[in-house]
Structure formats: structure tokens, C-alpha cells
């Protein structure tokens, strides 16, 4: 039987990048996936490419939209087994030069978004004894220049994952976080010029030295698939690192 046979899944921010790779791999492994994105056209295109079960769009900063997207996904799928909170943004800035509005924006997407999505999904996940996979980052475990507010937001996401896992353990609903290093997506492409300016090192050299290579969106989807599957039935509250060894090294 395929790893995710029959699993009913909603993935936020799955029109592109890591979310799209998760929606694709989960579908290949037998899941029925509802694609969701802030951009309707991107979502429709991705869903058609993937052969997804449907589309339920939302901007994760809008609680009413998130609630409606979860309800629509449940309607399409006939229930919900897995919520993947993938939608996230980066803003590069020295922390103490960042505007308060920009700091709040990153938390609205990366922390409040998953929070309201988990609240909307929990009644359905309790019914299915399902699970949540939160796409965090190694930036939630260690600091990085230029990514102060992003680091803070991903640390918050990891901590919410842990607390939800402990509080909800009696219900059988599992919560796990995935913490990737740099992966090959539009988000990292946007960061490269600022990183190169700050470090004076070509980004390709930095990546080769620190993590061997860029991660692929599929590297991350593979770990998400394991955590979402019944093979991970004893895994909850984890923050699973995949970064080519970047965070393992002090030099
Ligand atoms: P990406 O290429 O920018 O894709 C993110 C997707 O989320 C896009 O389709 C984007 O739509 C959508 N999105 C943005 N804001 C949204 C909102 N408010 N509501 C709903 N959807 C929204 O990013 P990615 O690299 O795939 O990142 C996916 C997740 O992995 C993020 O949580 C990120 O923090 C995390 N992560 C990424 C890396 C990496 O190296 N790439 C490493 C660690 C963790 P638009 O393009 O239309 O804005």
C-alpha cells in the first residue's frame, strides 16, 4: 500500500515551492490533497498539474478565510487527516532596523497563520486521529543575520508545535515541525543578494561549505510525508532537522 493511501490532506501555500512539492509527493503516495494558496491562479495551475483533489484558497493572515478554506477542504475530501502549515514568508533586515509593521507582518503569516489553521482543523483532526506538519526552519533553532524576525517566527512555530503535541496527546492527534536549511525555491532566490552583500561570500560557496548543496523541495516533502504517515505514529512534538549538516557544525 502507498505510504499515504487515502489520507485527506490540506497544504497551505502549495501553489509553489516546498508546498507544491509536498502536494505533489503526497498525491504520488496515495493521498487526496487540497491545494491552497494566497494566489488563486497559481493554486489552480498547481492543482491541475498535480492532479489534486481540489482547491481551497486562503490568505493565512485572514482568520475567516482560513476557516472557510478548512471547511471547503473538509467538504471536498469528506474529512481531514493531515494539515500541512507550509505558507510562510521571509523578510531580510537587520533586526533592530526592521520596522515594527514588517516584524508584525512576518509573525502574522508564519505564526498567527498556522495558529488559526490548527484551531480551525482540530475538530476534524480529532475525528480522524490525524496530524499536523508545520514547516518551520533551522532558523527557528539557531540565529542568522538578516533573518531576526524570521528566526523569531519559526522559533514560535516550533514551540507551538511542541505545546500542541503535549496538550493534544490524549486525543491521538500528532503535531510535528520540519526544520529545513536552505532549499532551492523562490524564497531563497530573493534572499541571495542581501546575504552576499552582508557576507561578501558567493552564496553558492556558502551553501557548498555549510550544507553540501541546496536542499530540494522534494527533500523536505519526503520528511513531511514520513511525519504525516502512520509509520510515524509514535512521533509527536518533534522538530525534525534536514539541512545537510549545517546546524551540526560550529565552524
Ligand atoms: P515560496 O517559494 O515563497 O512559496 C511560498 C508559497 O506560499 C507561495 O506560493 C506564496 O504565494 C504562498 N504564500 C505567501 N504568503 C501567503 C499567505 N499569506 N497565505 C497563503 N499563502 C501564502 O517559499 P518556500 O521556500 O517554498 O517556503 C515554504 C515554507 O518553507 C515557508 O514556511 C518557509 O518559511 C519554509 N522554509 C523554506 C526554506 C527554504 O530554503 N526555501 C527553508 C526553511 C523553511 P506567493 O508567491 O503568491 O506570495
From TrEMBL:
GO molecular function: glucose 1-dehydrogenase [NAD(P)+] activity
Keyword match Metal-binding: no
Organism superkingdom: Bacteria
InterPro entries according to UniProt: KR_dom, NAD(P)-bd_dom_sf, Sc_DH/Rdtase_CS, SDR_fam
Keywords of this entry: NAD, Oxidoreductase
Statement: the UniProt record of this protein carries the keyword Mitochondrion: no
Listed EC numbers: 1.1.1.47
Domain spans labelled Ketoreductase: 7-185
PANTHER family, A to Z: DEHYDROGENASES, SHORT CHAIN, ESTRADIOL 17-BETA-DEHYDROGENASE 8-RELATED
Record family assignment: Belongs to the short-chain dehydrogenases/reductases (SDR) family.
UniProt-recorded name of the protein: Glucose 1-dehydrogenase
Organism listed in the record: Pseudonocardia nematodicida
Amino acid at each position: 500500500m502507498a505510504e499515504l493511501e487515502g489520507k485527506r490532506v490540506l497544504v497551505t501555500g502549495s501553489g509553489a515551492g516546498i508546498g507544491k512539492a509536498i502536494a505533489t509527493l503526497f498525491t504520488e503516495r496515495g493521498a487526496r490533497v487540497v491545494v491552497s494558496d494566497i494566489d488563486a491562479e497559481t493554486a489552480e495551475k498547481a492543482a491541475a498539474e498535480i492532479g489534486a483533489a481540489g482547491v481551497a484558497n486562503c490568505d493565512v493572515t485572514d482568520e475567516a478565510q482560513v476557516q472557510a478554506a478548512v471547511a471547503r477542504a473538509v467538504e471536498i475530501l469528506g474529512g481531514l487527516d493531515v494539515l500541512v502549515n507550509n505558507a510562510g514568508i521571509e523578510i531580510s533586515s537587520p533586526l533592530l532596523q526592521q520596522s515594527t509593521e514588517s516584524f508584525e507582518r512576518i509573525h502574522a503569516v508564519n505564526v498567527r497563520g498556522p495558529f488559526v489553521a490548527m484551531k480551525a482543523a482540530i475538530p476534524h483532526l480529532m475525528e480522524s486521529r490525524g496530524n499536523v506538519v508545520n514547516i518551520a526552519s533551522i532558523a527557528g533553532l539557531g540565529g542568522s543575520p538578516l533573518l531576526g524576525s524570521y528566526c523569531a517566527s519559526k522559533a514560535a512555530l516550533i514551540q507551538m508545535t511542541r505545546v500542541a503535541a503535549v496538550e493534544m496527546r490524549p486525543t491521538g492527534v500528532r503535531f510535528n515541525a520540519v526544520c529545513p536549511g536552505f532549499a532551492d525555491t523562490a524564497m531563497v532566490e530573493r534572499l541571495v543578494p542581501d546575504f552576499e552583500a552582508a557576507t561578501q561570500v558567493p552564496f553558492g560557496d556558502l551553501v557548498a561549505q555549510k550544507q553540501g548543496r541546496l536542499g530540494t523541495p522534494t527533500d523536505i516533502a519526503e520528511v513531511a510525508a514520513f511525519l504525516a504517515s502512520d509509520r510515524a505514529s509514535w512521533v509527536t512534538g518533534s522538530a525534525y532537522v534536514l539541512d545537510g549538516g549545517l546546524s551540526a557544525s560550529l565552524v
